[in-house]
Specification:
Layout lengths: L8 H13 L3 H11 L5 H19 L2 H8 L7 H17 L3 H17 L5 H19 L5 H13 L6 H13 L2
Amino acid sequence: MLENNEISVPVFRNIIIAALRVKQYAWVENFIENYKIYVHPKYRDNAVYFSLARLEINRENYDKVLEYLQLINYEDVWYQLGAKTMQITAYYELKEFDALESLLNAYKMFITREKSLSKERKKAYFNLIKYTKKLLYILPDEKAKIAKMRKEIEENNTVVTKTWLLEKVDELKTRR
C-alpha cells in the first residue's frame, strides 16, 4: 500500500470505496484520519475532503457532504465530476430543488464543454441529469410514468449513480 512512505491518491480512494461498499463507515473515517499523512501534500486536502464527502453521502449526512465539497480545489476534472454528482444527490435529498435545477443546467454545460470526456462518459452524465430532472417533475400518482422511467433506467447501461436513481424512483412509487 505504501510506496516510498506514500500512498497514491488512486490507492487511497480505492481503499475507501471498497470499505464504503461494505458499509464500514467507522473504519473509513479512521483510515482517512490515520493515513492522510501518507498522501502527498500536493494532493492531500482534495483526497481527504473528497473522501470525507463520499463517506458522508453514504451516511446520508447531506449538509456535511456540501460542506466538504466546498473545501475542494477543482483543478482536476474527475473531482469536478464526482463532486457535482454528490451535490446532485445532496440537493435532491435535502429538497433543495431550485439549487438542484440550477446545478443540473450548469453541469450539463460543463459536460458539453469538457473535451477530456469520451462520448460514452458524457452520455452517462447526461443520463444522470436527464433522469434527475424527470424525478423533479414526475408526480407520485403518475404510476405509468414512474414504471416507464424505472424500466428505462434499468435497461440503460450508460448512467451514473444508477442505483441511487432507481431508489428515488421506487420512493416515488410509495409516496402518496
